[in-house]
Amino acid sequence: MKKRVGNVRWGIASLLSLGIIVNYLDRVNISVALTPLEKELGLSNFQTGLILSSFLWSYTILQLPVGAWLDRFGVRWLNRIGSFIWALATFMTGLVSGFGLILLSRILLGIGEAPVFPGASKATGYWFPIKERGLATSAFDAAAKFSSVIGAPLMAFIVAGYGWRAAFVAAGIINVVYAVIYWALYRDPSDSKVLSEEEHRYIVEGGAQPEKVAPTNVVASFGFLLRQPKVWGLSLGFAAYNYSFYLFLTWLPGYLQKSLHMSVLKSGWYTVIPWIVATITDLVIGGVLVDAFIARGYDATKVRKTIVTIGMLLGLAVIGAAFTTDATLATIWISIAIGGLAFAAPVAWSIPSIIAPKGTVGSVGSVMNLMGNLSGIIAPIVAGLVIDKTNSFAANFLIAGAILVIGILCFLFLLGRIEQIKMPGEGEKETAEESLLGASKV
């Protein structure tokens, strides 16, 4: 009978996932509140696109330094500080008036939330053996989708009943509660008082990333990583995914309200459907199925690349939404697209903790997130410009489809085999150590 090793690591996965849910409430509420916010402030579609993307300006700029800080100072303190900053920014969004102050609030929100995803990726590398990395990663990635499942109708209800400002005040209160919970509960494995010795051994022997290992020369480390085709293949492929993800995250309720003439409340409920599909496919296919195939002995690289490719191909279903004005058909096409993209995402997020040289998971994750969020900045602005120029949303779906094709090619041909990158001199050092070990045995 197999001996149980404990489940503290899954408690950490739940804590990280809860953080992502709370985190994404701050991205959902602005989308749901779009129409009344536009009316009160008298915004054009282009100005709305700027507000929708402004969160990502600071978020994206901070990705490289945040990656270095995570590798140097650890997940715990960076996310503690960030959680209180993003709570402050959320309250501020609901209390201020005028285009400029709303823009400033969203920029501050990006600063607070910058460490969240790279931090979750790094923490997963610490807390989980490689064979469980797929499900652990899909747990926090699926939380980003599930946040829209609960967040869209909740925020729509609050906006419809109490006004758009109330949605931000409510989200701010939730943020503060989570910040306190995270402060109290998150620890790295070596600092945890509830982690058993057996479970710690199970995690470490299963290939977890070593703790408190950071590159001594951060600039040289980033320079080396940016010369690696694997890092570019992963980052550009993820950028293609993120373009469509942010198009849907920021504009889906607005698309339903503007193009399909739904009320705020009705658009909130229709928005839920694709995100329910995304949550399920993320966990079941991107998590459980990937881990199951690898556990049965299938080549890990082929499994991950196949799942990513299939998911992004399904994402091309977004093109179908360009050719219908029927709400049901549009929702079906969008659900297929988001569902496919959703199970590709956790596979992509599991890759930094596998390919990163020792002590650089945060750095690789931040490069990937930087590229992804550059496309996330562009997506809502381009969408707003396209709507202003064409008075239609259709061309936005076609643009997203073309970008996905480029992303698929990057995953297939630039990423290569999914295995750890060796830092300069590391291979020779390990060979020398192995020779010494062999000599000592003789």
From TrEMBL:
Cellular location(s): Cell membrane
UniProt KW keywords: Membrane, Transmembrane, Transmembrane helix
CDD domains for this protein: MFS_ExuT_GudP_like (cd17319)
InterPro entries: MFS, MFS_dom, MFS_Na/Anion_cotransporter, MFS_trans_sf
Major facilitator superfamily (MFS) profile domain mapped to chain residues: 12-419
Superkingdom of this protein's organism: Bacteria
Record bears the keyword Calcium: no
Transmembrane intervals: 7-25, 45-62, 83-109, 162-185, 231-252, 272-294, 306-324, 330-355, 367-387, 393-415
One Pfam family from the record: MFS_1
Membrane topology: Multi-pass membrane protein
This protein's record includes keyword Transmembrane helix: yes
PANTHER family on file: FI19708P1-RELATED, SOLUTE CARRIER FAMILY 17
Protein name: Transporter YybO
